[in-house]
Each structure stands twice: as C-alpha cells, then as structure tokens.
Write a structure and sequence with these properties.
The complex is a heterodimer of chains A (114) and B (115). Chain A is an all-beta fold and 114 residues long. Chain A has no helices and 12 strands. The model of chain B has no long low-confidence stretch (mean pLDDT 93). Classes of the chains: A mainly beta (114), B mainly beta (115).
Chain lengths: 114, 115
C-alpha cells in the first residue's frame, strides 16, 4: 500500500525560531513527486513546496526548505524564522508519475507561540 | 486570478436527506478533483475529471454518491441519501492538466454535518 506517515500530530515553536516537521512515505514507484501543503484555519489548502524525487538537491522556498532522503523515504519540512502566519495544519503528500492522485499524510498541527 | 470557488461553505442536514455541493475551478483548468477530508485526517480523492470525463472514480461510493462536470467547467457532487458518517469537509481542487504532475489548487471546502 502507498502511504504517507506524519508522526507528529502537533508541534509548537516560538516565533522567530526554527521548526522541523517529519514525514515518511512508502511507495514502490521510482518516479514520484513530494509536496508539503499548508491548511490554515480557513481550510484553504496552499502548496508550500514541492520536490521531484529524481532531484538530489533539496528544494527551498524562502523560509521553507526540505530535507529529502530518498533511500530512507523521508521528506521533512524546515520552517526558519517562524511567523505567526505559519500557524496551520501541514500535510505531506506525494503523487506518482503515472497518477494524478495526491496521497496525503494525516497532518501536523503547528502552533506558533508569540 | 480568482481561486477555486465552492458553495455552500457549510451545510447541516438530517440523515437520509440529499445534499449537493458545487465547485467552480480556476479558469482554464481542465482537471478537477473532489476530495473527502475527515476530521483530523488528510484529504482522500473521491473523483478526478479531465474536462468532462471522470478518469478516476475508484474511491467514489457509487451507491450514494454521484458527480457530474457538464461542459467541462463547474462540477457538482451529490450525496443521496446522506448518512451520519458522511459528516466531513468536501474539498474541490483544480489543475491545468497540461503537465505531470500538476500543481493542484484547492477551494475552501464545504463542511457537511449530518444529524
């Protein structure tokens, strides 16, 4: 079965500090893409960052970066200089080359403490 | 550019009643998705459309759920009759449909409560 596991149901961090959200996945496919989505309390899901599995270089988008370990099937998200607006549910997801179906993890609720 | 629009945002119904959700995707997006999100869980795909064609409906409970995307733009998801276990958020997403993988853009969702 193709699954995504987020082992941290909740995380909290002080404003301006750095936090890392964990994600592991299981797929037999060799060609796939990984995503982190953010879902604020208004519930509109927003793409934060994506990573192509064939690329060794970790993706970076401003304060957001990933640590992609393909052999370990691990895809963690690091948020630097945390801001109050980062508070949300964060979902890890992947899609295989042959399918357009996003497979999501159960999410991590991130709280930012002022 | 307008985002994905969904209505209603909230719906409360009695069990065994029918309910319908509407989605208007981003202009020019050929692919449309309906996801089910149970409380505390990630979304799960119900159905995916490429233009008017339902290309993946393997997870849609066809005994009570139906969907349509007439003219390849707006889409409606219907439940008849609704059951208590259908209480969840129903998310619509769209993508351009011209690359793999597509970036999916999500709407705000419809929160359904079945009493």
């Amino acid at each position: 079965a193709q699954t995504v596991t987020q082992s941290q149901p909740e995380m909290s961090v002080q404003e301006a500090e750095t936090v890392t959200l964990s994600c592991t996945y299981d797929t037999s496919e060799s060609d796939y893409y990984l995503f982190w989505y953010k879902q604020p309390p208004s519930r509109q899901m927003i793409l934060v960052i994506r990573q192509e599995a064939y690329k060794q270089q970790n993706a970076t988008e401003n304060r957001f970066s990933v640590n992609f370990q393909k052999a370990a099937k691990s895809f963690s998200l690091k948020i630097s200089d945390s801001q109050l607006g980062d508070a949300a549910m964060y979902f890890c997801a992947y899609v295989t080359q042959g399918a357009q179906k996003l497979v999501f993890g159960q999410g991590t609720r991130l709280t930012i403490n002022p | 550019e307008a985002g994905v629009v969904q209505s209603p945002r909230y719906k409360i119904i009695e069990k065994k009643q029918p309910v319908a959700f509407w989605c208007n995707p981003i202009s020019g997006h050929n692919t449309l998705y309906w996801y089910l999100q149970n409380l505390g869980q990630g979304p799960e795909l119900l159905i995916r459309y490429e233009n008017e064609e339902a290309v993946d409906d393997s997870q849609l409970p066809k005994d009570r759920f139906s969907a349509e995307r007439l003219k390849g733009v707006d889409s409606t998801l219907k439940i008849q009759p609704a059951e208590l276990g259908d209480s969840a958020v129903y998310l619509c997403a769209s993508s351009r449909g011209d690359r793999v993988p597509d970036t999916q853009y999500f709407g705000p969702g419809t929160r359904l409560t079945v009493l």
